[in-house]
Design goal:
CATH class: Alpha Beta
Structural class: alpha/beta
Order of helices and strands: EEHEEHHEEHEEHHHEHHHH
Number of helices: 11
């Protein structure tokens, strides 16, 4: 499900769960464990930055629809795993660069907005928090993470519509930092991560902690209430109807 490659001080974690890198509980837990291993290696200095990449044309299609539809214990496990992964990225001691190699709706965008930098492939790709389009509520913390990048007014305009943005629109909105040719997406993300890794470590760490302090604070509350926020009532009848339509197209 993952392909892990070290490029000097930069560790690449490539999402490889065919066909669309859907975020199942197993997959999310694997990503979380891979990041934990990278951060542990970072304590010894062998890893100084991380790149999370997708496959050509697809970063991640978001949460696994079948596990969300299942409800009960499977969905609760998925949501707890996804919450843990979000915290892991937000609190990362190392810079994390997202190589958005293609589409990144919903959960794919959630992963990206928690990273330090985002490089997106140019082309007929879309990203955005489109949860409302499938009858889901994105939640306050995800809203604030999104707002942190695009601003209050733009978040208010985009989030309720579940708007999906092209690479050019995402760049203009501040949702991504760079848009490059598809074949340059991963190389550029690796270059950017290497630039971060080469900076004077103490000064870089202090500056990075300063600019990400607001993001970290969003995740300081207790995680015990996560199931209450995303319990069985998170998936409504309209959610099931919307997701059933999605599954019927596959």
């Amino acid at each position: 499900m993952l392909e892990i490659t070290d490029h000097g001080p930069v560790r690449e974690i490539r999402l490889a769960r065919a066909p669309v890198n859907a975020l199942s509980a197993d997959f999310v837990e694997a990503i979380d464990a891979a990041l934990d291993a990278a951060f542990t290696a970072g304590e010894g200095g062998s890893v100084r930055a991380v790149v999370i990449a997708g496959q050509p044309g697809m970063f991640s299609a978001g949460l696994d629809v079948r596990e969300v539809m299942a409800g009960g214990a499977p969905m609760q496990r998925l949501m707890l795993a996804f919450w843990s992964l979000q915290q892991r990225i937000a609190r990362s001691p190392l810079p994390v660069v997202a190589a958005l190699t293609g589409h990144a709706p919903a959960g794919g965008t959630v992963l990206a907005i928690l990273c330090d930098h985002r490089v997106m492939a140019d082309g007929d790709f879309r990203m955005g928090l489109n949860e409302v389009q499938v009858g889901l509520f994105p939640g306050e913390i995800i809203h604030r993470c999104f707002e942190r990048l695009v601003g209050t007014g733009r978040a208010a305009a985009l989030l309720p519509r579940g708007a999906m943005l092209s690479p050019a629109q995402a760049l203009a909105a501040g949702l991504v930092d760079e848009v490059v040719a598809p074949e340059r997406t991963l190389p550029r993300a690796l270059e950017l991560a290497a630039e971060c890794a080469a900076l004077p470590p103490i000064a870089y760490r202090r500056t990075r902690e300063m600019v990400r302090a607001d993001l970290v604070r969003l995740f300081e509350g207790p995680s015990a209430g996560i199931l209450a926020r995303f319990g069985d009532d998170w998936v409504t009848d309209e959610t099931r109807a919307r997701m059933a339509t999605i599954l019927s197209r596959r």
